[in-house]
């Protein structure tokens, strides 16, 4: 992923050097396990453990001669190991014993970093929702004014969606935190299963139960589906901010620094650029998820068609999701909210937002449903065409109204607030 959308904590995990550092760690652990079985001399293990992971530049240099990254890595790694000890490196292993076990370790670390960012987003949303729980605003369905709700209620829905994403990510982390050291077609023909158990245990990984040389790719597809769904949840937040930021609405606004410049040609512009960026990144994540589904079906025990895809998609998806969630939390935390504009939107249609309450009152008083609906609808249509107050039109038709205010619609709102407070307290 380009540096613009990369944050250091996540990007470091996916650097070439981090990959080679982990490969070296896997080789050291494997040699140690082999020594515990009596297959590798203890002195050789000591030499292997003392060796430094080769630099990415050195591996790239050797790859020009070998056209094989793993063999180039092993050659570079063994340059720092005496010949008598170097021959024990990678004993009984095949390339993807190294690659997939290290990948499981990287994915587990990356999931942990992402989960911290998502948990922060959940907390920021919950806090902001509680802060604006009583900030009345118009609800919209089909993009049109519906009934009053509160801005806090909107944010609560987003907080619970993000919480569900956390559970999906946690489940996916379990599935991808897996390794295998089982040999060329996964039969342990040249390596004792103890080596796999030991190495994976030291790395905090589970073992692929029926390896085919590689870890099953449906695991990675599950992770990318969870990430894409998370991205869509963030997109929903960003879309709401964009819609409420429009000039004719103006109910919220992204935080602006003194350095902000919104347009190269129009100095007055205050564009929701952060929200727009978050929406765009969600599209990337959906694309990555579809691509990873293509990686599930490999030829026979394995082929290499998945490798080029994963080199791009796995790092990019993790980096983008981390960036998106981090910036979304920043956006919500600093969001400017304008309660007076929200209240003005409720009043904009001269009371039409209360039509459902009037209908309910008529039904409770015994009016037949169709007659009640048509009467309220006629008053609403008349108020819309004439610009009159909705209540006045109702009274002109002989319909008396009770209290017409946002509070009428929020009598049971505390039920949702209690659920939200439990969610908020979970992350503390």
From TrEMBL:
A GO cellular-component term linked to this record: cytosol
GO biological process, one term: 'de novo' IMP biosynthetic process
Alphabetized PROSITE patterns for the sequence: FUMARATE_LYASES
Top-level enzyme category: lyase
Reactions catalysed according to its record: N(6)-(1,2-dicarboxyethyl)-AMP = fumarate + AMP; (2S)-2-[5-amino-1-(5-phospho-beta-D-ribosyl)imidazole-4-carboxamido]succinate = 5-amino-1-(5-phospho-beta-D-ribosyl)imidazole-4-carboxamide + fumarate
Any single Pfam family the record assigns to this protein: Lyase_1
EC numbers: 4.3.2.2
Source organism of the structure: Actinomadura rudentiformis
Keyword Isomerase: no
Family the UniProt entry places it in: Belongs to the lyase 1 family. Adenylosuccinate lyase subfamily.
Domain Adenylosuccinate lyase C-terminal: 350-421
PANTHER family: ADENYLOSUCCINATE LYASE
Any one GO MF annotation of this record: (S)-2-(5-amino-1-(5-phospho-D-ribosyl)imidazole-4-carboxamido) succinate lyase (fumarate-forming) activity
Keyword Lyase recorded: yes
Endpoints of the signal sequence: none
Protein name: Adenylosuccinate lyase
């Amino acid at each position: 992923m380009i540096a613009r959308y990369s944050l250091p904590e996540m990007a470091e995990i996916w650097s070439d050097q981090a990959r080679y550092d982990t490969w070296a760690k896997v080789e050291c652990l494997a040699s140690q396990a082999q020594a515990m079985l009596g297959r590798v001399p203890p002195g050789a293990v000591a030499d292997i453990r003392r060796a430094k992971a080769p630099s990415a530049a050195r591996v790239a240099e050797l790859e020009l001669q070998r056209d094989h990254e793993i063999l180039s890595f092993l050659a570079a790694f063994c340059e720092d190991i005496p010949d008598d000890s170097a021959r024990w490196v990678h004993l009984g292993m095949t390339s993807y014993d190294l690659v997939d076990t290290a990948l499981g370790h990287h994915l587990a670390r990356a999931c942990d970093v992402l989960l911290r960012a998502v948990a922060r987003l959940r907390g920021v949303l919950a806090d902001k929702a509680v802060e604006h729980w009583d900030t009345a605003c118009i609800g919209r369905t089909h993009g049109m004014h519906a009934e009053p709700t509160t801005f806090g209620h909107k944010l609560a829905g987003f907080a619970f969606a993000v919480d569900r994403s956390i559970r999906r990510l946690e489940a996916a982390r379990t599935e991808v935190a897996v390794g295998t050291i089982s040999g060329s077609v996964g039969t342990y023909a040249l390596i004792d299963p103890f080596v796999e158990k030991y190495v994976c245990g030291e790395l905090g990984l589970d073992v692929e139960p029926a390896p085919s040389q590689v870890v099953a790719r449906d695991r990675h597809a599950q992770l990318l589906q969870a990430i894409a769904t998370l991205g869509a949840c963030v997109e929903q937040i960003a879309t709401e901010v964009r819609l409420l930021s429009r000039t004719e609405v103006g109910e919220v606004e992204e935080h602006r620094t003194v350095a902000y410049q919104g347009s190269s040609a129009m100095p007055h512009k205050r564009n929701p650029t952060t929200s727009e960026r978050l929406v765009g990144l969600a599209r990337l994540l959906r694309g990555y998820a579809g691509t990873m589904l293509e990686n599930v079906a490999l030829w026979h025990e394995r082929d290499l068609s998945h490798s080029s895809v994963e080199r791009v998609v796995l790092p990019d998806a993790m980096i983008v999701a981390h960036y998106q969630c981090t910036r979304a939390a920043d956006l919500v935390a600093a969001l400017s909210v304008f309660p007076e504009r929200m209240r003005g939107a409720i009043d904009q249609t001269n009371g039409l937002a209360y039509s459902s309450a009037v209908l309910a009152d008529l039904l409770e008083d015994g009016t037949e449903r169709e007659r009640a609906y048509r009467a309220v609808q006629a008053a609403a249509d008349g108020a819309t065409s004439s610009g009159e107050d909705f209540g006045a039109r109702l009274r002109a038709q002989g319909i008396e109204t009770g209290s017409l205010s946002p509070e009428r619609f929020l009598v049971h709102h505390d039920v949702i607030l209690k659920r939200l407070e439990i969610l908020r307290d979970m992350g503390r």
